[in-house]
Amino acid sequence: MSTQTNQLLARNVEVFDADGNVIAGFWQYGTLSWDEFHSYLSQFVITGSRWSIFQYDTVQKQRGVLCQPSPQIVQPGQYILLTPAGGSIRVDLVARPVRLRIPTHSNTPAREHYYRSRGRARDGKCLITGLQTLTFRRLKVAHIFPRAHDAEWIRKGYPSKITDTADEACMGGPSKIDSVQNVITLRSDLHDAWDNYEFGVNPNNNYRVTAFTNGNADINGLHLQLDHIEDPTMRPLDELLIDHFMQGIFKHMRGVGEPEWKYEDYDDVFRDGSFDLTNPKIWETREGKQGFELALADRLHTHRVAQQSAQATV
After folding, report:
1. Whole-prediction pTM value?
2. Mind giving me the DSSP string for 117-147?
3. pLDDT exceeds 90 at position 106
4. Angle at alpha carbon of residue 248, lines to 300 and 76, rounded to 5°
5. For residues 199 and 213, what is the distance between their CA atoms, to the nearest angstrom?
6. Which H or E element spans position 22?
7. What InterPro entries does the record point to (predicted)?
8. What are the CA-CA distances from residue 50 to residues 70, 78, 297 (Å)?
């Protein structure tokens, strides 16, 4: 008896090397051009000489038409990366790890963070879809750069780029990682997809939204709505948006894509705001251990900032 599944296909564009290895892919909604795709491939493809992309017949193992950088839209299908003359070429991929994030749960017991109230006050709507609600029940304020990675945030020099004039206590302490310049307000169902880098915003392309995975047709091609933010010290930083966008490319476009926990896995372990340390999903997988460490780091960050604020008032 045949079984049916409602699971969406992950990709409708894939690129192979001459040995048949998948080196790249994504879900094409009809908006991503060859100019863009070539520029993204150049971020993680390593070869000893120039390369080109050709159409590819995976059954006959034959290359087809050359696909040069151009404004033309990439058509769904299979492609192969070869030398410009069509010869084989060794392909390696940049081994840059993706910055793991964990979903934010609305029922997590925590005091109201300043970044949430400030983000809501600044935006008043989802900056992707324009959705407005009376009570913010359908909106969440999301970090662009995750606060659990504050050590990397500092190492990259982001605190010095924040021009937000609020008190440090309102910005997550001296690191300023909770600055309103590091958050955007999103429709609630988009928050976890944002954390998973399923879509990103490219400031270099008129702040257009590019979705890297299937299931995001309703937002792909939209533009981040920032016209209402006149004060530059309140505006999300382009550099942070680019950083987030590149994480999406490395996570979902490079190679076969990175394995990940599903939302249900996180919900099973962290659903009530506590840690279920008896759950084997934490201890039996690398992703589980990393997720636990990040969740703990995020909560310790809140505790540390609260202590710093208390000491500052003494």
Report:
1. 0.84
2. HHHHHHHSS-TTT----SSSTTEEEEESS-G
3. no
4. 155
5. 7
6. strand 22-26
7. HNH_nuc
8. 17, 20, 43
Q: Which CA distances in Å does 89 have to 52, 69, 81, 82, 93?
A: 10, 19, 8, 6, 13
Task: Indicate the fold that domain 13-89 takes in CATH.
Answer: Ubiquitin-like (UB roll) (3.10.20)
- Predicted confidence at residue 160, as pLDDT, reads 97
Residue 200 CA to residue 198 CA, distance in Å, equals 7
Cα distance between residue 185 and residue 190, in whole Å: 10
Asked if 135 and 200 touch (Cβ cutoff 8 Å), the reply is no
Task: Determine how many CB atoms are found less than 10 A away from the CB of residue 296.
Answer: 12
- Residue 279, amino acid: N
Helical axes 263-270 vs 286-312, angle rounded to 10°: 60
User: Are 136 and 188 contacting, i.e. CB atoms less than 8 angstroms apart?
Assistant: no
35/126 Cα distance (integer angstroms): 29
pLDDT of residue 8: 80
What DSSP character marks residue 258? -
Domain extents in the chain: 13-89, 114-312
Token pair for residue 296? 């703990």
Is the pLDDT confidence value at 121 over 80? Answer: yes
Chain centroid to CA 153: how far? 16
Residue scoring higher pLDDT (302 or 192): 192
- Return the number of other C-beta atoms located less than 10 Å from residue 48's C-beta: 10
- Mean per-residue pLDDT over the chain, rounded: 86
Distance from C-alpha of 310 to C-alpha of 301, rounded to nearest angstrom: 14
Rg for the chain, CA atoms, rounded: 21
